Amino acid sequence: MGTIIADVVGPQAEAIDREAVFPGQGVAALAESGLLGLISAREVGGLGFGLAEAADMIEQVAQYCGSTAMVVCMHFAAVAVIEAHGTLAVREDVARGRALATLAFSESGSRSHFWQPLGTATPGVDGVRLDGAKSWVTSAAKADLYIWSSRPLAGEGASSLWLVPAATSGLRVIGAFDGLGLRGNCSSPITAEAAIVAPDAMLGPDGGGFDIMMSTVLPFFQVMNAAVALGTMEAATRKAAGHVSATRFEHLGRASPTSRPSVPTSPGCGSRQTSPAPFCSTPSTPLGPVARTPC
């Protein structure tokens, strides 16, 4: 993990944000190392870790590249659904780094009520037709799999979820994303116009999307999204402290009155840093020991 950050993720971060390009090389390196299968079960080729380890990994990545961290965050949020409701073949592809996944929930019509999509699912001769407009989807046009929400096919409930391959005809990415510090995560709108999927592409029961979102997706998303913010904050604090501590009154030959030799840590922050997630201190895990930077 530390090598990937030092050799790939970190050095490319500035250009990724400046040029608004997807962090493809960093994501590929994480896939090749097995880290995109971090929360996939061991029996399908994953590493078998949980939310705590996922959040710690994302926090570390976010200290160097916010875009890469957000891509991984949404991948793991989608993988949580795939692990619970996906087929064996799809779970194996994800676990072995052969497929990048993401969520496609948000719609402009229902705004923050993401559990209540306006897009529809209609049965047809060739399969199920999906129509809808997602306001933003992380890794749009870059992910291999979308967890897509729609109104139920026939059942009751707020929504149903579908596994939609990115190559599905009828999907269209519209517009570009321009977010401060996250310009490379490609969170663009996607529309579905007569996008046909097989009936068995449904994840969970018809009308059961709300329950899956609340019980499976939201716990992962909330914690990992906070990890992105925390990692970003740690990096910003470290850079600010470095700048301030290096400031000098050269004409007086001494440091500025605002300079400090170091930034003291709060008791809570210090205790967290001295007690990292278990996988960070376990030499046998692929993530390996990664030096933590005091916040």
Instruction: Quickly give the structural class.
Output: alpha+beta
Shape, please? Answer: elongated
Head-to-tail CA distance between termini: 20 Å
Low-confidence stretches: 259-286, 289-295
Strand content: 15-25%
Report the biggest beta sheet as strand number plus sense, adding barrel if it closes. 4 strands, mixed
Overall average residue pLDDT: 87
Helical run tally: 7
Number of strands: 10
- Radius of gyration, whole Å: 21 Å
The helix-strand sequence is HHHHHEEEEEEEEHEEH
How much helical structure, as a percent, in the residues? 25-40%
SSE topology sketch:
Blueprint: H1 2-19, H2 24-32, H3 51-62, H4 66-85, H5 88-95, E1 101-104, E2 120-123, E3 128-137, E4 145-150, E5 160-165, E6 171-173, E7 188-197, E8 202-203, H6 209-245, E9 248-249, E10 254-255, H7 267-273
Parallel strand pairs: 1-4
Antiparallel strand pairs: 2-3, 3-7, 4-5, 5-8, 6-7, 9-10
Helix pairs in contact: 1-2, 3-4, 3-6, 4-6
